[in-house]
Amino acid sequence: MPGKVYLVGAGPGDPELLTRKAWRVLQTADVVLHDDLVSQEILRALPLAAQVISVGKRCGAKGISQIEINELMVSLAQEGKSVARLKNGDPLLFGRAGEEMEALRQSGIEFEIIPGVTSALGAAASARISLTDRRHASRVVFVTAHRAGGTGLTNERHVAPDTTYVIYMPGNRNVALAEELQAAGIGAEIPCVVISRATTKDETILRTTVGKLAELPGAAAPSLVVVGSVVGMATGDATGMETEELSDEFREQILSLAMEHPIHNS
Question: Of 30, 36, 57, 81, which one is the catalytic site residue?
């Protein structure tokens, strides 16, 4: 009997943000094919019995191709294995899930999508930014700084002032992003924030403006940029160290329990 493939959202990095269904599938999968951007904290929580394979692709670095990933998923499922295709954030947002679902359909492989907390929401929560606010922003636009035909910003024109932009995968393109945002009509004075490795212990949050974005160094992946007046509403908002330390301690306890008591299907 052929196996089944699960396209699983890992969330932004904190293992506590995995859904219960994602957790159950990961604890019972025969094989886990994960992207490079999936956090080490989540990878450490995978059961020792699972075969864990990195199929990550980094911009500018040679690695496994998408076609090879598709073929690997199909061949493993045809061997009767339960395959978890683990993606950072949510599988259906900038995760090439469309190409993978097409390959699975064409091969007659059963598959299921398990949503995850997309990185935009995890990062906004960490930075205490409400992406919408009835006083300032009624629209949110998700774009990627890297796409097959170029950047996701070059076609943006006449942006409405009540728009919040969330730019995925900015890489080291801060100079170009600052130029493209201003070319789209977003003023140099508009606040923005670069959030790197959101919800993990290595998280960094750098606040600036569109005009000064070019002065910031490239952030460690995964990162994203939030642009809009709502960013300014969170300026000066600081989290207490006691809360951060408690969160880190609790996270380590969860990971320890995960290794000692993996969850199984009933």
Answer: 57
Of 2, 1, 43, 3, the closest CA to residue 26 belongs to: 43
4 given a catalytic annotation: no
CA distance 2 to 157: 48
- In this prediction the pTM is 0.82
Q: Which tops the pLDDT comparison, 240 or 16?
A: 16
Catalytic annotation present for 57: yes
Q: How many CB atoms lie within 10 A of CB 186?
A: 22
Catalytic residue flag (residue 237) = no
Tell me how far apart the alpha carbons of residues 237 and 196 are, in angstroms, rounded to a whole number: 18
Ordered domains of the chain (ranges, CATH): 4-117 (3.40.1010.10), 120-233 (3.30.950.10)
Is the CB of residue 122 less than 8 Å from the CB of residue 203? no
